[in-house]
């Protein structure tokens, strides 16, 4: 925070017409000048800004494009599996039984292109990263290179058995927003498609004998597509995502096994 201080001394002198008595009154006034700074990470009124000593905001903005770097829509939530319409795994998928409260979905966006139609509605396409982590219950080792998603019993007693995948995520969103309230906050209602391209996947196991991390495709879908919804107030919200294609490719036994994520979100 940068502040520049200037001090000005104003002297008021009053002299009688006959110059018999001279009285001088000095008034000292301190004036503080604050430098306001905005750093824009792109172009357009909707790009991410870093504000220093600037609390002003515009109630209404004109339509226009925006593009730039961002660090927003930080999602942290839970991953659940939907097996042909049921949240209970079928016997064919029971080996994927997972710990619900330890299976996570984490992600955020780093790039955004958007068009603001009005202060209450905008459209944007973003790019970021998304991590899916399944904490498996069973003492098994998922195979990397089988003709389908297969496993073998583990020879050690595992304390952690985590199957993970990392995706580049591409949300295409329609953001409906209310006008700012007295505190400068607003409600958001966001819906739209959510796309993903897998860039890595792995199996991490921990036991008393040590830790092991094995990389491979594990038949995770190379491309996924679904729908996402967000709702919130101010900077905080909740999100839900459901993917329409199978979670695993080229594995007939897992046909109809799909992914549903939900949780908390920060930023719009």
Automatic annotation (TrEMBL):
Residues 1-19 form the signal peptide. Keywords: Signal. This is PorT family protein. The lineage of its organism: Bacteria, Pseudomonadati, Bacteroidota, Sphingobacteriia, Sphingobacteriales.
